Amino acid sequence: MIRKTTLFLSGTMLGAALVGFMLQPGSLTSTSAAKAASSDTYRQLNLFGDAFKRIRENYVEVPDEQKLIEAAVEGMLSSLDPHSAFLNANAYGDMKVQTRGEFGGLGIEVTMEDGLVKVISPIDDTPAAKAGILAGDRISYIDGEAVMGLSLNDAVKKMRGKINTKILLTILRKEANEPLEIEITRGVIKIQSVRSRAEGDIGYIRVSSFTEQSFTGLEKAVKNLTNDIGEDKLKGFVLDLRNNPGGLLNQSIAISDAFLDKGEIVSTRGRDPQQTQRYNARSGDLSKGLPLIVLVNGGSASASEIVAGALQDHRRATIVGTRSFGKGSVQSIIDLGANGAIKLTTARYYTPAGTSIQAKGIVPDIVEVQELPDEFKGKERVTSEAKLRGHLKNGEDEGGGSSSYVPADPELDVQLQFALKLMRGEITNDAYPADPLRGLATK
């Protein structure tokens, strides 16, 4: 029996959370060929039963049978490709939180430093901000339990929880002589996957992942930037998809559609030709045809590659940066009820021109390399789909991937500054024989 199924295109690298692209629930079906298992296959399944029985009876300690079965399923799926996996109930719950973009928590962006949780920034209008948590605060205890020895993920899980429940944090603050104890009531926290700002006469929009909130965030950003800069002064938009590991398919389609009037956005093709699905743009351009530049790098994967590929193939935008990660396969999240879910690769996706970017990535219209600071040179490990063991093959010219470094200071961001100059016409076409301004409409 196949339970409720959701299709995802997962994309991850460099320690990013596994996130994917959602298709319609229940769209995964079994072909007659897949259903027909030979008697030899069933005989081979006895191997699992025999091994499980011997482990239960003879292992030196009483084994956890649930863990044994989960490990067996995990091993079976991981032998297929890097993106097929078993998700136990906890992992499945975490994945749904990531894609939903909303959870019960405190509202702080954190990292790990010297064994303690360090607050990078409290998010405006959240319980943490209202309770007085400051950037730079270090959390040493959570409800009386020492943070030292916990992983960042474990600490984050302890701080998340049901809405309207209380949590006590012990805070170390440079300005305070003694630790501070701050009690916070958890609230609804929305992950802000879209941030924007005016860069003079150009609207800059950063999409860090594709959650259920992303298209709404983009729509709001375009509206606010148009009002802030002025419709008569606004030259265009820079859409930053660098280091975006992916997200929900419907959101990547919606964001592509926001800048397209017509045409195919993406297609997915599985083993059964009858399961091919095509997604098309609807009439209406959110930006009213203003010039558009999309930034990508080696950290751009999956959903971000769908957006970049659609806008590139339709000549709607100029893609600037370095080659993307090259994640071009579709995963089906098959709900197993209380047991969690399995994530199974079931298809590849193709750009409007019929191109599979699997293990190849999106090649920018203009390659603009961000130089690494001296302290990072020789230390950064470039990751790509093509370098993952067991990845789906795609011809002989595999590659993809590039540096994922983006400086925090916009003034030092070579790729962004290049895009702004290109948008303003400060860089001439003569320097780029490939016609870098293709897709840049004129107002």
How does this model look, in words?
The protein has helices spanning 32-35, 39-58, 65-78, 89-100, 127-131, 152-159, 214-229, 249-257, 303-313, 414-423, and strands spanning 5-8, 85-87, 102-105, 108-113, 116-122, 138-142, 145-146, 166-172, 180-185, 187-190, 194-199, 202-207, 236-240, 264-270, 277-280, 292-296, 318-321, 329-335, 341-350, 366-367. With 443 residues, it is α+β, with helices and mostly antiparallel strands. The chain folds into two domains: 1-101 and 192-443, Alpha-Beta Complex (2-enoyl-CoA Hydratase, Chain A, domain 1), CATH 3.90.226.10; 103-190, Pdz3 Domain. Strands 1, 2, 14, 15, 18 and 19 form a six-stranded antiparallel beta sheet that branches. Helix 8 runs parallel beside helix 9.
Please outline the helices and strands.
Blueprint: E1 5-8, H1 32-35, H2 39-58, H3 65-78, E2 85-87, H4 89-100, E3 102-105, E4 108-113, E5 116-122, H5 127-131, E6 138-142, E7 145-146, H6 152-159, E8 166-172, E9 180-185, E10 187-190, E11 194-199, E12 202-207, H7 214-229, E13 236-240, H8 249-257, E14 264-270, E15 277-280, E16 292-296, H9 303-313, E17 318-321, E18 329-335, E19 341-350, E20 366-367, H10 414-423
Parallel strand pairs: 12-13, 13-16, 16-17, 17-20
Antiparallel strand pairs: 1-18, 2-19, 3-10, 4-5, 5-6, 6-7, 6-8, 8-9, 11-12, 14-15, 14-19, 18-19
Helix pairs in contact: 8-9
